[in-house]
Specification:
Elements: H1 2-35, H2 37-46, E1 48-53, E2 56-62, E3 65-67, E4 70-72, H3 73-82, E5 94-98, E6 104-109, H4 123-130, E7 133-134, H5 137-140, H6 146-164, E8 176-177, E9 184-185, E10 192-193, E11 200-203, E12 205-206, E13 211-212, E14 227-230, H7 235-246
Parallel strand pairs: 1-6
Antiparallel strand pairs: 1-2, 1-4, 2-3, 2-7, 5-6, 8-9, 9-10, 11-14, 12-13
Helix pairs in contact: 1-2
This protein binds zinc ion (ZN).
Zinc ion binds next to loops.
Length: 247
Amino acid sequence: MSLYCGIACRRKSFWCCRLLSTFVTKTRYLFELKEDDDACKKAQQTGSFYLFHSLAPLLQTSAHQYLAPRYSLLELKGLLGKFGQDTKRIEDSVLIGCSEQHEAWFALDLGLDSSSISASLQKPEVEAELQGSFMELRKALFHLNGKDASLLFTAQALLRWHHAHQFCSRSGQPTKKNVAGSKRVCPSNNIIYYPQMSPVVITLVSDGTRCLLARQSSFPEGMYSALAGFCDIDPGELERIRGSCLV
Ligand SMILES: [Zn+2]
């Protein structure tokens, strides 16, 4: 029995180490791409792209599930060419993750006109060409697998942030994103803007056998949610919390 437990523990420890090691190497790789524009451009050559239109991801239906298709750089250039778009539009894409084999994944919004070179592509034409639909992400959530859902929400948040932060709040000049989209810089005064982090709290109220759920009228039929909310802490409040923690 103790021999069996010993082997099981060693196996568990082996898989924990392996998972941790994969996580560390992926994180290091992503960090490199965020800091090095040339490395990130190179990663685009072998990477793949999720597509959005006005913050709605492109999804395809397969056996009652939604799949989020990815396109290579070559396929993406072909698509933009077909719709008479400048391939410089790909510069608007953002890095959202990578596979264990270090295939970098990016997201590009074809509907937001976030720079002077990019006019919005017509949604129905792109949907017909790619045999999919740009769908509201919240409504599609329960028909997506966990990996796609997580990546698409990350992508949507980052694309939204870039769309809303195109100008420097001090000089009013246009800011420029780095290749990975992990920051924006104002060329006139070198102020760096990073995507905002919003802490969120989710609670499940339960008496052990039942739990309290809520729904909004805008939810699709049958969808309920636990109670959640964002924590918006201003700097003064943060100092107060720090002070009470020290006491
Ligand atoms: Zn500025």
